[in-house]
Fold this sequence. Notes:
- Residues 21-68 are annotated as: Disordered.
- By secondary structure, the chain is an alpha+beta fold.
- It is built from six helices and six strands, in the order ααβαββααβββα.
- Among the domains are: 68-141; 146-189, no CATH class.
Amino acid sequence: MLLVPLQPSLRPSSLKLLLKRRSTALSPPPSTLTAKGVNSASASRSTPRSSPIRKAAPPPTPQSDGRIFLRLDRDSPFANNDTFAIRKEVQTFLRLAPTDIPGCHKVPTGFALVPKNDAVRQTLLAHKDEISARFGCVQVEVPKKWATYAVQNVPMMMRLGMVPVDTTTAIKDEMLVQTSQEPIALRPS
Length: 189
């Protein structure tokens, strides 16, 4: 809408002419007008573009932990070896292809072998006694699911009357009651 201040000298017919001149000056040339009187170039700009709607990514599926742990004794001659040497020794010992065990990682209790697929994993587990004897392993095992529980408001020292109570035993008993499992380790925080 165009607002024009009226002057006393303008008659209604001259006002229409003035408005018509201004509107034609603002409009595009007649050759680009379509049958409906809409500029084809501006019509294509004014219509919203259909952008592809991105779907939300599906939640990641939890991957199984396919590692095989070689739990070594601290005095084992293999405890300080390089991961490459351990991986090569297992491959040679079990006559596996070099691509069957693509990874080996150092963990606090020994080494973790990463087999290529489930078939290689089953082969390693089938020969766990031989691997244990060869490397002096305490245990050859699959990963276990661990849970950490925090028990709050436990004093470092408790007394029942004048008798001191062992808080470690009390916490172990409470964990057994709540989880039906005995804790592996306890530590104050």
